[in-house]
Design goal:
Blueprint: H1 2-13, H2 19-32, E1 42-44, E2 48-50, H3 53-63, H4 67-79, H5 83-87, H6 92-97, H7 100-111, H8 116-123, H9 130-139, H10 145-157, H11 159-169, H12 173-176, H13 189-206, H14 211-225, H15 230-252, H16 258-261, H17 264-294, H18 303-306, H19 314-326, H20 333-362
Antiparallel strand pairs: 1-2
Helix pairs in contact: 1-2, 2-15, 3-15, 4-9, 4-14, 4-15, 7-8, 7-17, 8-9, 8-20, 9-10, 9-20, 10-17, 11-17, 11-19, 13-14, 14-20, 19-20
Protein backbone atom coordinates (compact mmCIF):
# COMPACT_ATOMS: atom_id res chain seq x y z
CA UNK A 1 0.00 0.00 0.00
CA UNK A 2 2.93 2.34 0.52
CA UNK A 3 3.90 1.68 -3.09
CA UNK A 4 0.34 2.25 -4.31
CA UNK A 5 0.12 5.47 -2.30
CA UNK A 6 3.44 6.60 -3.75
CA UNK A 7 2.26 5.74 -7.26
CA UNK A 8 -0.89 7.84 -6.86
CA UNK A 9 1.15 10.78 -5.58
CA UNK A 10 3.57 10.41 -8.51
CA UNK A 11 0.72 10.29 -11.04
CA UNK A 12 -0.83 13.38 -9.46
CA UNK A 13 2.35 15.46 -9.37
CA UNK A 14 4.44 14.27 -12.30
CA UNK A 15 1.66 13.36 -14.75
CA UNK A 16 -0.95 15.83 -13.41
CA UNK A 17 -3.66 13.13 -13.45
CA UNK A 18 -6.53 14.41 -11.27
CA UNK A 19 -4.02 15.85 -8.75
CA UNK A 20 -6.71 17.31 -6.48
CA UNK A 21 -7.98 13.77 -5.77
CA UNK A 22 -5.16 11.34 -6.43
CA UNK A 23 -2.58 13.20 -4.32
CA UNK A 24 -4.73 13.26 -1.13
CA UNK A 25 -5.82 9.66 -1.78
CA UNK A 26 -2.23 8.51 -2.20
CA UNK A 27 -0.99 10.30 0.90
CA UNK A 28 -3.97 9.09 2.90
CA UNK A 29 -3.33 5.50 1.77
CA UNK A 30 0.12 5.74 3.35
CA UNK A 31 -1.23 7.26 6.57
CA UNK A 32 -3.96 4.67 7.19
CA UNK A 33 -1.53 1.77 6.66
CA UNK A 34 1.15 2.88 9.12
CA UNK A 35 1.33 0.49 12.11
CA UNK A 36 -1.03 1.61 14.90
CA UNK A 37 -1.75 4.73 12.87
CA UNK A 38 -3.33 7.57 14.79
CA UNK A 39 -5.53 8.56 11.85
CA UNK A 40 -7.73 5.48 12.42
CA UNK A 41 -9.38 4.34 15.63
CA UNK A 42 -7.05 2.51 18.02
CA UNK A 43 -7.73 0.64 21.26
CA UNK A 44 -5.12 0.50 24.00
CA UNK A 45 -5.07 -0.81 27.56
CA UNK A 46 -5.76 1.90 30.08
CA UNK A 47 -6.83 4.52 27.53
CA UNK A 48 -9.60 2.64 25.77
CA UNK A 49 -10.46 3.68 22.22
CA UNK A 50 -8.97 6.81 20.69
CA UNK A 51 -10.59 8.28 17.61
CA UNK A 52 -8.62 8.71 14.39
CA UNK A 53 -9.28 11.78 12.27
CA UNK A 54 -9.49 10.04 8.87
CA UNK A 55 -11.79 7.33 10.19
CA UNK A 56 -13.95 9.98 11.88
CA UNK A 57 -14.18 11.98 8.64
CA UNK A 58 -15.13 8.81 6.76
CA UNK A 59 -17.80 7.79 9.28
CA UNK A 60 -19.33 11.27 9.50
CA UNK A 61 -18.77 12.66 6.02
CA UNK A 62 -19.31 9.56 3.88
CA UNK A 63 -20.64 6.57 5.81
CA UNK A 64 -23.31 8.33 7.88
CA UNK A 65 -24.87 10.56 5.23
CA UNK A 66 -22.67 10.62 2.10
CA UNK A 67 -22.39 14.34 2.83
CA UNK A 68 -19.06 15.01 1.10
CA UNK A 69 -19.88 13.56 -2.35
CA UNK A 70 -23.32 15.19 -2.30
CA UNK A 71 -22.04 18.62 -1.22
CA UNK A 72 -19.46 18.48 -3.99
CA UNK A 73 -22.32 18.43 -6.50
CA UNK A 74 -23.27 21.97 -5.49
CA UNK A 75 -19.88 23.17 -6.67
CA UNK A 76 -20.05 21.07 -9.85
CA UNK A 77 -23.51 22.43 -10.67
CA UNK A 78 -22.32 26.00 -10.17
CA UNK A 79 -19.51 25.42 -12.68
CA UNK A 80 -21.71 24.13 -15.51
CA UNK A 81 -23.29 26.27 -18.21
CA UNK A 82 -26.25 24.35 -19.66
CA UNK A 83 -26.81 26.99 -22.35
CA UNK A 84 -25.25 25.02 -25.26
CA UNK A 85 -27.37 22.00 -24.33
CA UNK A 86 -30.58 24.01 -24.05
CA UNK A 87 -29.83 25.48 -27.48
CA UNK A 88 -29.42 21.92 -28.89
CA UNK A 89 -31.86 19.78 -26.89
CA UNK A 90 -31.50 16.73 -29.16
CA UNK A 91 -28.04 16.24 -27.63
CA UNK A 92 -29.77 15.17 -24.41
CA UNK A 93 -30.01 11.79 -26.14
CA UNK A 94 -26.22 11.52 -26.34
CA UNK A 95 -25.90 11.84 -22.58
CA UNK A 96 -28.49 9.12 -22.05
CA UNK A 97 -26.97 6.73 -24.58
CA UNK A 98 -23.44 7.09 -23.21
CA UNK A 99 -24.51 5.69 -19.84
CA UNK A 100 -25.07 2.25 -21.39
CA UNK A 101 -21.58 1.21 -20.28
CA UNK A 102 -22.75 1.36 -16.65
CA UNK A 103 -25.45 -1.26 -17.09
CA UNK A 104 -23.47 -3.46 -19.48
CA UNK A 105 -20.59 -3.52 -16.98
CA UNK A 106 -22.97 -4.43 -14.15
CA UNK A 107 -24.04 -7.47 -16.17
CA UNK A 108 -20.42 -8.43 -16.91
CA UNK A 109 -19.38 -8.01 -13.26
CA UNK A 110 -22.30 -10.12 -12.07
CA UNK A 111 -21.36 -12.91 -14.52
CA UNK A 112 -17.80 -12.73 -13.20
CA UNK A 113 -19.08 -13.69 -9.75
CA UNK A 114 -19.36 -10.36 -7.94
CA UNK A 115 -22.24 -9.89 -5.51
CA UNK A 116 -25.01 -7.93 -7.26
CA UNK A 117 -24.50 -4.87 -5.04
CA UNK A 118 -20.77 -4.94 -5.68
CA UNK A 119 -21.44 -5.42 -9.40
CA UNK A 120 -23.74 -2.37 -9.39
CA UNK A 121 -21.09 -0.34 -7.57
CA UNK A 122 -18.41 -1.40 -10.05
CA UNK A 123 -20.64 -0.57 -13.01
CA UNK A 124 -21.14 2.99 -11.79
CA UNK A 125 -17.45 3.64 -12.52
CA UNK A 126 -18.77 4.04 -16.05
CA UNK A 127 -20.60 7.19 -14.93
CA UNK A 128 -17.19 8.90 -15.28
CA UNK A 129 -18.13 10.80 -12.15
CA UNK A 130 -16.05 10.16 -9.03
CA UNK A 131 -18.49 11.52 -6.41
CA UNK A 132 -21.33 9.45 -7.90
CA UNK A 133 -19.15 6.31 -7.85
CA UNK A 134 -18.21 6.89 -4.20
CA UNK A 135 -21.79 7.61 -3.14
CA UNK A 136 -23.35 4.62 -4.91
CA UNK A 137 -20.72 2.14 -3.70
CA UNK A 138 -21.05 3.44 -0.14
CA UNK A 139 -24.87 3.37 -0.06
CA UNK A 140 -24.90 -0.15 -1.48
CA UNK A 141 -22.32 -1.17 1.16
CA UNK A 142 -19.85 -2.46 -1.40
CA UNK A 143 -16.71 -4.11 -0.05
CA UNK A 144 -14.63 -2.33 -2.68
CA UNK A 145 -15.24 1.38 -2.10
CA UNK A 146 -11.52 2.22 -2.18
CA UNK A 147 -10.77 0.31 -5.36
CA UNK A 148 -13.85 1.78 -7.06
CA UNK A 149 -12.83 5.32 -6.10
CA UNK A 150 -9.28 4.82 -7.36
CA UNK A 151 -10.55 3.32 -10.64
CA UNK A 152 -13.12 6.07 -11.18
CA UNK A 153 -10.71 8.95 -10.70
CA UNK A 154 -7.83 7.26 -12.48
CA UNK A 155 -9.84 6.60 -15.62
CA UNK A 156 -11.38 10.08 -15.52
CA UNK A 157 -7.82 11.41 -15.66
CA UNK A 158 -7.02 9.04 -18.54
CA UNK A 159 -9.97 10.09 -20.72
CA UNK A 160 -7.62 11.88 -23.19
CA UNK A 161 -5.90 8.53 -23.76
CA UNK A 162 -8.83 6.09 -23.53
CA UNK A 163 -11.45 7.94 -25.58
CA UNK A 164 -9.47 8.51 -28.79
CA UNK A 165 -8.64 4.80 -28.96
CA UNK A 166 -12.27 3.80 -28.32
CA UNK A 167 -13.64 6.30 -30.84
CA UNK A 168 -11.21 5.33 -33.59
CA UNK A 169 -12.21 1.66 -33.18
CA UNK A 170 -15.75 2.43 -34.39
CA UNK A 171 -15.34 5.43 -36.72
CA UNK A 172 -13.61 6.20 -40.00
CA UNK A 173 -11.71 9.40 -40.72
CA UNK A 174 -14.56 10.48 -43.02
CA UNK A 175 -17.06 10.08 -40.18
CA UNK A 176 -14.82 12.00 -37.79
CA UNK A 177 -14.64 14.81 -40.36
CA UNK A 178 -18.44 15.26 -40.65
CA UNK A 179 -18.85 19.04 -40.41
CA UNK A 180 -21.09 20.74 -37.87
CA UNK A 181 -21.37 24.50 -38.16
CA UNK A 182 -22.19 26.09 -34.83
CA UNK A 183 -24.66 28.95 -34.78
CA UNK A 184 -25.00 30.74 -31.47
CA UNK A 185 -28.55 30.61 -30.17
CA UNK A 186 -29.72 32.63 -27.24
CA UNK A 187 -31.33 30.94 -24.27
CA UNK A 188 -33.59 33.09 -22.15
CA UNK A 189 -32.80 33.77 -18.51
CA UNK A 190 -36.17 32.32 -17.51
CA UNK A 191 -35.34 29.04 -19.29
CA UNK A 192 -31.96 28.87 -17.59
CA UNK A 193 -33.60 29.39 -14.19
CA UNK A 194 -36.47 26.96 -14.76
CA UNK A 195 -34.25 24.22 -16.24
CA UNK A 196 -32.64 23.02 -12.94
CA UNK A 197 -36.07 23.05 -11.29
CA UNK A 198 -37.64 21.01 -14.10
CA UNK A 199 -34.80 18.50 -14.13
CA UNK A 200 -34.97 18.03 -10.34
CA UNK A 201 -38.74 17.49 -10.32
CA UNK A 202 -38.80 15.13 -13.33
CA UNK A 203 -35.82 13.12 -12.09
CA UNK A 204 -37.34 12.92 -8.63
CA UNK A 205 -40.61 11.56 -10.01
CA UNK A 206 -38.87 9.04 -12.29
CA UNK A 207 -36.17 7.93 -9.82
CA UNK A 208 -36.75 9.26 -6.28
CA UNK A 209 -33.38 7.89 -5.14
CA UNK A 210 -31.69 10.36 -7.50
CA UNK A 211 -33.06 13.43 -5.70
CA UNK A 212 -29.96 13.97 -3.53
CA UNK A 213 -27.62 13.63 -6.49
CA UNK A 214 -29.59 15.53 -9.11
CA UNK A 215 -31.09 17.99 -6.64
CA UNK A 216 -27.77 19.23 -5.28
CA UNK A 217 -26.27 19.40 -8.79
CA UNK A 218 -29.21 21.48 -9.97
CA UNK A 219 -29.22 23.59 -6.80
CA UNK A 220 -25.64 24.59 -7.60
CA UNK A 221 -26.67 25.45 -11.15
CA UNK A 222 -29.63 27.50 -9.91
CA UNK A 223 -27.25 29.51 -7.72
CA UNK A 224 -25.23 30.21 -10.87
CA UNK A 225 -28.14 31.15 -13.11
CA UNK A 226 -30.42 33.09 -10.76
CA UNK A 227 -28.30 36.22 -11.16
CA UNK A 228 -28.69 37.45 -7.57
CA UNK A 229 -26.16 35.18 -5.82
CA UNK A 230 -22.95 35.93 -7.70
CA UNK A 231 -20.79 35.79 -4.56
CA UNK A 232 -22.28 32.45 -3.49
CA UNK A 233 -21.85 31.08 -7.00
CA UNK A 234 -18.14 31.96 -6.94
CA UNK A 235 -17.80 30.44 -3.48
CA UNK A 236 -19.49 27.22 -4.58
CA UNK A 237 -17.27 26.96 -7.67
CA UNK A 238 -14.02 27.72 -5.87
CA UNK A 239 -13.81 27.51 -2.08
CA UNK A 240 -16.56 24.92 -1.50
CA UNK A 241 -15.56 22.65 -4.40
CA UNK A 242 -11.85 22.84 -3.55
CA UNK A 243 -12.35 22.21 0.18
CA UNK A 244 -14.71 19.26 -0.31
CA UNK A 245 -12.45 17.78 -3.01
CA UNK A 246 -9.43 18.03 -0.70
CA UNK A 247 -11.24 16.39 2.23
CA UNK A 248 -12.95 13.77 0.06
CA UNK A 249 -9.65 12.56 -1.34
CA UNK A 250 -7.95 11.99 2.00
CA UNK A 251 -11.16 10.70 3.63
CA UNK A 252 -11.82 7.97 1.05
CA UNK A 253 -8.33 6.63 1.75
CA UNK A 254 -9.79 5.04 4.89
CA UNK A 255 -11.22 2.34 2.59
CA UNK A 256 -7.72 1.69 1.18
CA UNK A 257 -6.36 -0.30 4.11
CA UNK A 258 -4.18 -3.18 2.97
CA UNK A 259 -6.50 -5.99 4.07
CA UNK A 260 -9.34 -4.48 2.01
CA UNK A 261 -7.40 -3.24 -1.01
CA UNK A 262 -4.68 -5.83 -1.73
CA UNK A 263 -6.74 -8.62 -3.25
CA UNK A 264 -7.32 -10.05 -6.74
CA UNK A 265 -10.71 -8.35 -7.01
CA UNK A 266 -9.01 -4.95 -7.06
CA UNK A 267 -7.32 -5.78 -10.38
CA UNK A 268 -10.61 -7.11 -11.72
CA UNK A 269 -12.32 -3.85 -10.73
CA UNK A 270 -9.65 -1.79 -12.48
CA UNK A 271 -10.19 -3.88 -15.61
CA UNK A 272 -13.98 -3.59 -15.43
CA UNK A 273 -13.68 0.16 -14.93
CA UNK A 274 -11.74 0.40 -18.18
CA UNK A 275 -14.39 -1.73 -19.90
CA UNK A 276 -17.12 0.61 -18.62
CA UNK A 277 -15.37 3.70 -19.96
CA UNK A 278 -14.75 2.12 -23.38
CA UNK A 279 -18.34 0.87 -23.64
CA UNK A 280 -19.71 4.31 -22.74
CA UNK A 281 -17.75 5.91 -25.58
CA UNK A 282 -18.45 3.17 -28.13
CA UNK A 283 -22.19 3.00 -27.45
CA UNK A 284 -22.44 6.79 -27.58
CA UNK A 285 -20.81 6.83 -31.04
CA UNK A 286 -22.93 3.94 -32.35
CA UNK A 287 -26.10 5.60 -31.05
CA UNK A 288 -25.40 8.76 -33.05
CA UNK A 289 -24.71 6.66 -36.15
CA UNK A 290 -28.15 5.07 -35.79
CA UNK A 291 -29.71 8.47 -35.13
CA UNK A 292 -28.20 9.80 -38.36
CA UNK A 293 -29.96 7.06 -40.32
CA UNK A 294 -33.31 8.61 -39.38
CA UNK A 295 -32.22 12.22 -39.95
CA UNK A 296 -29.82 12.21 -42.92
CA UNK A 297 -30.40 15.90 -43.56
CA UNK A 298 -29.10 17.03 -40.18
CA UNK A 299 -26.33 14.59 -39.39
CA UNK A 300 -24.43 14.75 -36.11
CA UNK A 301 -20.73 13.94 -36.06
CA UNK A 302 -20.67 10.46 -34.41
CA UNK A 303 -17.90 11.52 -32.04
CA UNK A 304 -20.37 13.84 -30.30
CA UNK A 305 -22.02 10.71 -28.89
CA UNK A 306 -18.82 9.80 -27.04
CA UNK A 307 -18.88 13.21 -25.33
CA UNK A 308 -22.04 12.07 -23.56
CA UNK A 309 -19.99 10.66 -20.70
CA UNK A 310 -19.73 12.77 -17.56
CA UNK A 311 -15.99 13.53 -17.68
CA UNK A 312 -16.54 17.28 -18.06
CA UNK A 313 -14.92 19.10 -19.81
CA UNK A 314 -12.11 16.69 -20.72
CA UNK A 315 -14.25 14.58 -23.04
CA UNK A 316 -15.46 17.63 -24.99
CA UNK A 317 -11.86 18.73 -25.49
CA UNK A 318 -10.93 15.26 -26.77
CA UNK A 319 -13.73 15.42 -29.36
CA UNK A 320 -12.64 18.91 -30.48
CA UNK A 321 -9.07 17.68 -30.94
CA UNK A 322 -10.11 14.60 -32.91
CA UNK A 323 -12.38 16.71 -35.09
CA UNK A 324 -9.55 19.07 -35.95
CA UNK A 325 -7.27 16.15 -36.73
CA UNK A 326 -9.78 14.89 -39.29
CA UNK A 327 -10.51 18.37 -40.70
CA UNK A 328 -8.63 21.49 -39.50
CA UNK A 329 -11.78 23.58 -40.15
CA UNK A 330 -14.17 21.34 -38.21
CA UNK A 331 -14.74 22.81 -34.76
CA UNK A 332 -16.99 20.54 -32.67
CA UNK A 333 -16.35 22.00 -29.21
CA UNK A 334 -19.72 23.66 -28.56
CA UNK A 335 -21.68 20.58 -29.64
CA UNK A 336 -19.34 18.36 -27.62
CA UNK A 337 -19.77 20.62 -24.57
CA UNK A 338 -23.55 20.32 -24.92
CA UNK A 339 -23.36 16.51 -25.02
CA UNK A 340 -20.86 16.54 -22.15
CA UNK A 341 -23.10 18.52 -19.79
CA UNK A 342 -25.97 16.27 -20.82
CA UNK A 343 -23.80 13.38 -19.66
CA UNK A 344 -23.31 15.12 -16.31
CA UNK A 345 -27.07 15.08 -15.75
CA UNK A 346 -27.50 11.57 -17.15
CA UNK A 347 -24.74 10.14 -14.96
CA UNK A 348 -26.28 11.33 -11.70
CA UNK A 349 -29.72 10.17 -12.84
CA UNK A 350 -28.19 6.78 -13.71
CA UNK A 351 -26.62 6.71 -10.25
CA UNK A 352 -30.03 7.32 -8.72
CA UNK A 353 -31.60 4.60 -10.84
CA UNK A 354 -28.90 2.13 -9.79
CA UNK A 355 -29.39 3.07 -6.14
CA UNK A 356 -33.15 2.72 -6.31
CA UNK A 357 -33.20 -0.57 -8.18
CA UNK A 358 -30.36 -2.39 -6.45
CA UNK A 359 -31.08 -1.05 -2.96
CA UNK A 360 -34.58 -2.47 -3.30
CA UNK A 361 -33.16 -5.77 -4.52
CA UNK A 362 -30.85 -5.86 -1.52
CA UNK A 363 -33.71 -5.31 0.87
Amino acid sequence: MYAIGGLLIWLAIEKELEPALLMPMGFGAILVNLPLSGVVNQFSQGMGETRGIIQWLFEVGIEASEAMPILLFIGIGAMIDFGPLLANPRLFLCGAAAQAGIFLTIIIAAFMGFDIRDAASIGIIGAADGPTAILVSQVLHSKYVGAIAVAAYSYMALVPIIQPLAIKMVTSKEERAIPMTYTAQGVSRRTRIMFPIWVSVISGLVAPASVALVGFLMFGNLIRECGVLAALSRTAQCELANLITLLLGITISFSMKADQFIQPETLMIMGLGLVAFVLDSVVGVLFVKVLNLFAPGSRINPMIGAAGISAFPMSARVIEKLGLEADPQNHLLMYAIAANVSGQIASVVAGGVVLQYFANMAS
